[in-house]
Specification:
Largest sheet: 9 strands, mixed
Distance between the termini: 40 Å
CATH class of the largest domain: Alpha Beta
CATH topology of the largest domain: Dihydrodipicolinate Reductase, domain 2
Number of helices: 11
CATH architecture of the largest domain: 2-Layer Sandwich
CATH superfamily of the largest domain: Dihydrodipicolinate Reductase, domain 2
Structural class: alpha/beta
Strand content: 15-25%
Number of strands: 15
Order of helices and strands: EHEHEHEHEHEHEHHEEEEEHEEHHE
Mean pLDDT: 97
Number of domains: 2
Helix content: 25-40%
Radius of gyration: 20 Å
Length: 343
């Protein structure tokens, strides 16, 4: 079993990591570092609780450290964990600056340790569905791909993600999901054009983005708005043989918030009413959504640690996401399209 320590005990740790660490027999939850000692012990009475991340990392029994603390601490804690000979999973975004990621990748390689970022939405059912549609050429050659993560949050909330600071704002929060999926589908773009803005009243950081990735024969649009009160478009694909439209988010996050886990019968299965629609020359049809499963990310990590198998989400891939984030910020600031050739 992989003795595992988690840094942080907020929404990310409780919702997106602990259910899978507790579900998979290959992992043993050993320790959590948090200022919420009483809450941690009430929920997890048989583990060690540390007041600081540094104390947890210094625990010689821990083999894997999962970092779910604020974005501006990812580099510091990941570096310390690698220097302490721990495998590392970092919640997205990987880091806040490209040079930080390059240093961590070099250190992990030298130490021969696993370093990965939790890009769990590669295992969203709707993403797996559109990947299959693209791979099978059901829509012909793709000419336009739109990916949205819109929400209705018109009021700024008092939490670190929505306050000023390094690595805060919606582009660092939801952008990594959309960027990683786009890079998985289409690879590195030739250029990008970005608009990252503060649209909410008194917003101290980016809360809206519209980023366009330019490829030789198609366009990719990545978007998030805090003012989307109606049914939210998730994906739209347009190709030479048809198009596909999908509304609503993958059900796993909502299931996790309700306390469900992969052991439940309908885990990750989307309701038929939320299936996407396939439009082709001979008419339209409802297209079933594949079952996703965030547990597959953790199963891959255990295979990499215990059986030396290939890591599905590499640190190099996660660093590519950070490069896109920073270049998009530059594009938005200057109002210019930026060439990515050779970058």
């Amino acid at each position: 079993m992989i003795k595992t320590g988690i840094i942080g005990y907020g929404f990310s740790a409780q919702t997106f990591h602990l259910p899978f660490i507790n579900y998979l027999k290959e992992f043993e939850l050993t320790a959590i570092s948090s200022s919420k000692r009483e809450q941690v012990l009430a929920d997890n009475p048989d583990i060690q609780v540390y007041d600081t991340a540094e104390q947890l990392i210094q625990d010689d029994t821990i083999q894997l450290v999962i970092i779910t603390s604020p974005n501006d601490t990812h580099y510091e804690f990941a570096k310390l964990a690698l220097l302490s000979n721990k495998h590392v999973i970092v919640e997205k975004p990987f880091v806040t600056r490209v040079e930080q990621g390059e240093e961590l990748i070099s250190l992990a390689k030298t130490k021969e340790l696993i370093l990965s970022t939790y890009h769990n939405r590669r295992w969203d059912g709707d993403f797996l569905t559109i990947k299959q549609l693209i791979d099978s050429k059901a829509l012909g050659e793709i000419r336009l791909f739109e990916s949205h993560f819109d929400r209705f949050r018109p009021i700024v909330r008092q939490r670190w993600r929505e306050q000023a600071g390094e690595g805060t704002g919606i582009w660092y929060d939801l952008g990594p999901h959309l960027i990683d999926q786009a890079l998985c589908l289409f690879g590195w773009p030739m250029a990008l054009t970005a608009c990252c803005r503060r649209l909410r009243e008194n917003s101290p950081t980016t809360d809206y983005f519209h980023v366009q990735l330019h490829y030789p024969n198609h366009e990719v649009v990545l978007r998030s708005s805090p003012f989307s009160a109606g049914p939210g478009l998730r994906f739209q694909l347009e190709g030479t043989k048809g198009s596909f439209v999908k509304y609503g988010l993958d059900p796993q996050e909502e299931q996790l918030k309700q306390g469900l886990s992969p052991q439940h019968e309908n885990w990750a299965n989307e309701a038929e009413k939320n299936y996407g629609t396939l439009f082709q020359e001979n008419g339209e049809s409802i297209h079933p959504t594949q079952a996703g499963g965030y547990q597959h990310y953790f199963a891959n990590i255990s295979d990499a640690i215990l059986q030396n198998k290939t890591v599905a989400v590499t640190a190099q891939q996660a660093l590519a996401v950070i490069k896109i984030i920073q270049l998009a910020e530059q594009s938005s600031k200057t109002g210019q399209t930026i060439s990515l050739v050779g970058k």
